[in-house]
Design a protein that fits this description.
Blueprint lengths: L8 H6 L5 H32 L7 H32 L1
C-alpha cells in the first residue's frame, strides 16, 4: 500500500500566497472605500435635510460645515486608498 503525500504540487499551484503586507493593503483599501461610500451617503442626506430646512434658521451654516467636514474625510480616505494601492503594487 502506497502512502500518498499530504502536500502535493498541484495544491501549491492553485493557491495564492499573500504576504502579510498585501493583506493589510487590501484591508485598508476596503475600509477606505467604505468610508468614501458612507461619506457620499451622508453628504446626500445632509443636502436633502438642508433643502427641507430640517436644521432650522441656521440651515446654511450647518450644511456648509457638514459638507466641508465630509469632503475632508472623503478626500483623506481617497488619498489613503491611492497610497495603499501604490504600496500594494510595489510588492
Amino acid at each position: 500500500m502506497e502512502e500518498k503525500p499530504i502536500h502535493s504540487a498541484k495544491a501549491d499551484q492553485n493557491t495564492t500566497h499573500l504576504s502579510p503586507r498585501t493583506g493589510i493593503f487590501t484591508q485598508i483599501k476596503q475600509i477606505t472605500a467604505w468610508v468614501m461610500i458612507l461619506s457620499a451617503v451622508l453628504f446626500a442626506l445632509i443636502g436633502v435635510m438642508g433643502i427641507w430646512q430640517v436644521f432650522g434658521n441656521n440651515t446654511g451654516d450647518v450644511v456648509w460645515r457638514a459638507f466641508s467636514s465630509l469632503l475632508i474625510i472623503a478626500f483623506a480616505a481617497l488619498i489613503i486608498n491611492v497610497a495603499s494601492r501604490a504600496g500594494e503594487d510595489k510588492r
